[in-house]
Specification:
Layout: E1 2-8, H1 16-25, H2 40-56, E2 60-64, E3 69-73, E4 80-84, E5 88-94, H3 100-120, E6 123-126, E7 131-132, H4 138-155
Antiparallel strand pairs: 1-5, 1-6, 2-3, 3-4, 4-5, 6-7
Helix pairs in contact: 2-3, 3-4
Length: 157
């Protein structure tokens, strides 16, 4: 179970929600995932994202999978994973951080989201707390992460 932030390339003339509705309309949960087929421009975006996250935030591990490109932060304040698909991406943070640790990891997640937005033109939105990542408050996100983490530790352990 993870806290997820979504990033999407908003289609011309559509809102973020309308773009998501169109993407979701074609989703078949029983179908195989489509193989990753990035354009040269998307590959260049990924290279810029990877380079900038490494430079501005610190060491990351990266992998290329059949369906996505991924990076994962290394070291404190905790693991943040970014999966990039070209026209969409998402950031995952595990529900295991509370208090100050939750704030630190969510500030990191929002920094990564903003880098993705800058380097790719994707639009980020944190549906967990209903705010855009560009202007949203990581404190609000960390409160949500922390409360669910505490609940999970008490009820699922």
């Amino acid at each position: 179970m993870t806290y997820d932030i979504m990033l999407v390339r908003v289609q011309p003339g559509l809102t973020l929600q309308e773009t998501l509705d169109r993407l979701n309309a074609g989703f078949d949960p029983d179908a195989d995932l489509p193989l990753l087929r990035l354009t040269e421009a998307q590959r260049a975006e990924w290279d810029r994202i990877l380079g900038r996250v490494s430079r501005d935030i610190g060491p990351v591990e990266s992998e290329e999978y059949l369906y996505s490109l991924a990076l994962e932060t290394v070291g404190p304040p905790g693991r943040v994973q970014l999966d990039y698909y070209g026209d969409t991406a998402h950031i995952e943070v595990a529900y295991r951080h509370s208090g100050l640790a939750a704030l630190e990891v969510m500030e990191l997640a929002y920094r990564i989201a903003r880098i993705v937005e800058d380097e790719s033109g994707l639009t980020g939105h944190d549906f967990e707390v209903g705010q855009p990542t560009r202007t949203g408050d990581p404190v609000k996100a960390s409160d949500r992460l922390s409360s669910i983490s505490v609940w999970a530790q008490h009820h699922l352990s």
